[in-house]
Specification:
The chain is mostly helical. It folds into two domains: 125 residues, no CATH class; 137 residues, no CATH class. The protein is 68% helix and 3% strand. The protein is built from eleven helices and two strands. It has a two-stranded antiparallel sheet. A hairpin with a 3-residue loop joins strand 1 and strand 2. The longest helix is centred in the last third of the chain and has 29 residues. The radius of gyration is 19 Å and the shape is globular. The chain starts with a helix and ends with a helix.
Amino acid sequence: MAIMLASLLINKYVYGGVMLFALIVMIYEFLRMTCGTQYKYSQILAIVAGAFIFLMTFLYKGFHIPGRLVILCFVPVFILMINSLYVKDKTSFGKFASLYTAILYIAIPWAIMCFTVLDQDGNFDGRMLLSFFAIIWGSDVGAYVFGISLGQKYGKKLFPSISPKKSWIGFWGGMLTAVIVAVILQLTGVFPVSMVHAIVLSLLMDVAGVYGDLIESQWKRYTEVKDSGIIIPGHGGMLDRFDSALMAIPTGVIYLVLFNLI
C-alpha cells in the first residue's frame, strides 16, 4: 500500500514505473495460471504487447506524443497473432486464447487508469485514482467483515458456483462501506467530484468490483489454483490484489467521461 500511495502522490514518473511493473506482473501471473509453461515466447510477446499499450497511453496523456502514434499499440498485438501461426505444438492450442485475453482483461483496463491521473496538459494529480482505490479497498474490507461476521451464518450465498464464501450480506456490507469511504473522501477534499457523483461512483464501482473479483475467481477455479501468485505475502499475487480494480476503475472512468468530469 505504501508503494501504491507513493505512485499516486509523488509524480507521474513514479506512477508510470510502479503501474507498468504491476501490469507486467499481473499479465505474467495470468499467463502462468492459464498457459503454464507452454508457449513461452508467445507469453513474452503478450507481456510486451500489454506493456506497450500502457506505455503508449501514458506517453500520450503525460508527455503529449501525437495521438496518431497510439495506434502503434496494435503492432505487438498483430505480431502476437501472426506468431500463433508458427507455433508447432497445437495440441493445447485453446490455451493460446489466454494470450489475447490477457490484453483485453488486464492491459487495456490498466492503461485506462492514465486518464484519471493526467489531464489534457499532462499535469499529474493522483487524487481521483487514489479515491478509486480507496473505494475498492473499502468495499473489500466491508464485504469481508460483514461476510465473515454475518454472511456465513445468515442469508444466501452471492455466487456459490464460483466463490462459495461470498454472501449477499457481505455484498451489501461492502457497498455500504464503499459509500462511507467515498463520502469521507469527498468531505475532506480528496475526491475531486461533487457529493452526488461521489456516491454514484462508489455504488457503480462497488458492483463492478464485485464482478471483477468473481471473474478472477472463475479463472482460478477453472485453472485449479488458489492464488494467482506469491508476490504479496498474505494476499497471493498481484492479480489477486487488483482483480476488482480491473473492472471497477474502467467503470469509474466511463462515468467520468460521460459526465464530462475529466
